[in-house]
Amino acid sequence: MAKKVFVIVLNWNGYQDTIECVESLKGVDYPGLEIIIIENGSTDGSEEMIRKRFPELTVIQTGVNLGFAGGSNAGLRHALSSGADYMVLLNNDTTVDPSFVKELVRAAQTDERIGLLSSKVYFYGAPEVLWYAGGGFNPWLGWGRMRGYGRRDDGQFDAVEETDRAGGCSLMLTRRFCEKVGLFDEEYFCYCEDLDLGIRAKRAGFKVMYVPSSKVWHKESKSTGGSTAAVSLYYTVRNTLKCVDKNNPLPFFLRMARYASLLAISFLSLFTMKTPKIQGVKRIYQGARDYFQQRFGEFRPKNRP
């Protein structure tokens, strides 16, 4: 008998992408696949459009934007209470290979110590170019990378293997993992919650796996510059500081050195981003300040000078 799998798609003001994603999921060749849409407090009429297009699907309205962490947790709780064996968190701006779920399940069943599994992810606009093929993360320094990013897929990353960094774009969680380790830390709101979950997984004795035969195409962020990129800097800085201090605490002087290193990398990243440099500097400062003041949740610029 096939394991019960739920795919959870989080929507926030992006029903066009969500509809394309769900249409792609309709072609998945896994028996009895359940699709859940988490409508995360959109203001663009998303819920009406999605319910009209897919009246047969479960749509859960959160009532407010809970971010990726909170919205995903709402879907995970629903799936767990409905008897799910495996749950796949899938970005709404993706399309999938028909066998992407089957390949994740196949890999998960090889070892009960496996808790998290990530797909191989390509750029939607360049279908042979890799976006994620496993990743590295140094939890002491807070430095990370996505392996293969921007490289053509020539089969160089085709082995199923453990990875340091789970890919939240297409991420399967096992029921056993959720029951023993828990769900996302909702203070992150968005960014780094998957890093935190992966670190917690390994600490609890679970494996984090990269499954290259499970394939997904990701549109990435449509806004690679401007205010959206600057806000991503805010979350990245604040949440990386939280993640490393929470999971790998250091003595005072080493902690100060780690802060300096992380902030230096953040400022250097401005030169690779299409965003106003003054605005970027401001968001980095705000991210660091809010972390040190222990202010988490959604970033609201009007309330944070």
Please, could you describe this protein's structure?
This protein has 305 residues and is α/β, with parallel strands linked by helices. The chain has two domains: 5-218, Alpha-Beta Complex (Spore Coat Polysaccharide Biosynthesis Protein SpsA, Chain A); 226-303, no CATH class. It is 38% helix and 23% strand. It is built from nine helices and twelve strands. It has helices at residues 15-25, 46-53, 67-81, 100-108, 175-181, 193-203, 226-247, 252-269, 277-292, and strands at 5-11, 34-39, 58-61, 86-90, 94-96, 114-123, 126-132, 135-138, 143-146, 161-162, 170-174, 207-218. The strands form two sheets. Strands 1, 2, 3, 4, 5, 6, 7, 10, 11 and 12 form a ten-stranded mixed β-sheet that branches. Helix 2 links the parallel strand 2 (34-39) and strand 3. Helix 1 packs parallel to helix 2 and helix 7 (226-247) packs antiparallel against helix 8 (252-269). It is globular and about 55 Å long. The model is unreliable at 222-226 (pLDDT under 50).
Largest sheet: 10 strands, mixed
Taken together, the total number of domains comes to 2
Query: What kind of assembly state do the chains in view correspond to?
Result: single chain
- SS strand fraction: 15-25%
SSE run: EHEHEHEEHEEEEEEHHEHHH
Give me the CATH architecture of the largest domain, please.
Alpha-Beta Complex
| Average predicted local confidence, pLDDT | 94
* CATH topology (fold) name of the largest domain: Spore Coat Polysaccharide Biosynthesis Protein SpsA, Chain A
CATH class of the largest domain: Alpha Beta
Number of strands: 12
